[in-house]
Task: inverse folding
DNA sequence: CTGTTAGCGCTTTCAC
DNA sequence: GTGAAAGCGCTAACAG
């Protein structure tokens, strides 16, 4: 096996305690012996046994992120952000995605029970009651990624959907001069989607624009849903001049319908989206959309977690919102 | 802290050794005491301390996957595949992506040195000499994802680029009746790209079609590169009737150029790609392309790794190639 | 069947 | 400054 402190101790003719001290650079070890030990360690290519240290320190230097899936547009970015911060803190990251054979709750409990990780970042589409209970009574460091429907006692970070939708709507009105703006909603159980709708409504209101009931159409965040919604909007007697889709996928659906009707974006009707997925860059004309800084979410969550980890006692719960920005394309 | 076997031992009035045995279900423990212990364990909500066990067993039940990046089209799928298999084997997965602050080699050495993981899956765009050396002298379980440029002594899995390109070309010729097929290459240092070119050439040859030098154009796997290559091809005196881009990104570039020239796909010129990235589904007309079963790569790599892990002594090195399939769109 | 004992590799009092 | 010794929670001989 690999070299241990015992090996070094033997060669340096000191005790393993001294080696331990010297290697941890702390304590009061005579300069010369410290140097000798460090030299020896280097020579022997010594690396501390992580596991042994963990056993005594009760600290694994591992955090974990649990998410519904590892693929897609957002998750990888989040992981990346977390990984970055973890690395800087000299931590490792275990990624656990719930899949058919594993569910989120199980994952958390498992990790924590086995004292495998020092903390977890949890990303869930929605917070079930079972989960809520666990979180409410939790006694381990955790931060949740998911803006709404949150548990008060648990740190969280989410994106500011309201602000994003508000500023996009405001942009359409005040920078682009649109007044007739329709909105395609996301699934109503989805709290992100709801916030986006509220942001849209608030912006209309603040600009003294009456909202039209039939310009707020249900959608389901899919391309297909966008197509359906869009064709309904464009078959109204009073058609909107701009369509704000609650996500880019549905905006892409609008593109399909609009081009199949022989209409032009943005001349005949403008389309804007939300998310800034990579597809939005490939649409012609390039989609104007709300950018969600995904990696920042990951980084923020990780930073929050380390704040708890380093500052356990007097850490106070925070709920952070990540603000969005507008990516200006040519679709309005 | 959490319950330990000592706690259980006390309550059951037996020694910790017996508890350990009972819990591990092995050995010969009297049925009644075993049942008592297991009942107690459940009552006390006992979970084994992973770290303590690791320290003595010298086995962490963690594998790691190291990749250049966590985002993008492919990596998440690979991770997912690995995760699935890992979970089934009762293992955890640590994901490490090399980023600005960390490089691959460092990661491997680090993990192994700290005896943090039992094995690693390594995915690299290319294998440097430094890495090659490490791999050649490696003494820990590792499997490399990257078909070519491989180290003989190390297990690997990669996709069969040659076969993929061959069958696509063959499909164009024999199913679709094309004879004038141009090819846009990837970067020549990229061995995947080279294999694709070879597959293309081989298919032409086997069908007795002379290849044309100026129909094989350099590209760089980017949209821009695809655009450039495509406009060069379409300004030739003798234009090809079909363009086989070595990846979907470049195929997307072709789409742009072709539509800007007012030409139609596939009537005026057919376009096919390679990779089956999600963008290819959104192109109009839908792109015909070679599907790379990414999650299968991950699964295969993981299975291979566990084969080594479980079968250490007499495992013989394998090099696996994952075959591809054709996704039929409307672009040819 | 079950208990005793000796570690795994390291950190951390407590003495000297 | 440094060593001795205990112990983290568990497993694995070795006895009985």
Result:
């Amino acid at each position: 096996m690999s070299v241990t402190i015992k090996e070094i101790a033997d060669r340096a003719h000191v005790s393993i305690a001294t080696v331990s001290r010297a290697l941890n650079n702390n304590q009061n070890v005579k300069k010369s012996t410290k140097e000798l030990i460090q030299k020896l360690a280097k020579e022997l290519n010594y690396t501390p046994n992580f596991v042994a240290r963990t056993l005594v320190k009760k600290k694994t230097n591992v955090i974990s992120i649990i998410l519904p899936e590892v693929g897609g547009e957002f998750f990888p970015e989040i992981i990346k952000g977390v990984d970055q911060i973890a690395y800087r803190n000299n931590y490792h990251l275990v990624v656990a995605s719930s899949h058919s054979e594993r569910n989120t709750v199980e994952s958390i409990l498992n990790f924590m029970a086995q004292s495998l990780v020092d903390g977890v970042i949890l990303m869930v589409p929605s917070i079930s009651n079972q989960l809520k209970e666990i979180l409410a009574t939790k006694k381990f460091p955790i931060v949740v990624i998911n803006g709404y429907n949150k548990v008060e006692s648990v740190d969280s970070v989410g994106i500011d959907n309201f602000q994003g939708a508000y500023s996009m709507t405001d942009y359409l009105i005040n920078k682009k001069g649109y007044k007739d703006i329709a909105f395609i909603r996301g699934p109503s159980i989805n709290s992100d989607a709801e916030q986006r709708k509220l942001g849209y409504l608030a912006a209309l209101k603040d600009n003294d624009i009456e909202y039209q009931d039939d310009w707020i159409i249900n959608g389901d965040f899919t391309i297909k849903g966008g197509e359906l919604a869009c064709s309904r909007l464009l078959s109204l007697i009073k058609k909107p001049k701009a369509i704000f889709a609650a996500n880019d996928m549905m905006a892409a659906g609008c593109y399909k319908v609009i081009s199949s009707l022989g209409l032009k974006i943005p001349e005949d009707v403008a389309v804007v989206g939300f998310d800034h997925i990579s597809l939005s860059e490939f649409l012609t004309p390039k989609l104007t959309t709300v950018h969600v800084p995904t990696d920042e979410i990951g980084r923020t969550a990780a930073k929050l977690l380390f704040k708890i980890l380093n500052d356990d006692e007097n850490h106070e719960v925070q709920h952070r919102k990540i603000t969005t920005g507008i990516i200006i394309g040519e679709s309005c």
Notes: The mean pLDDT of chain A is 89.
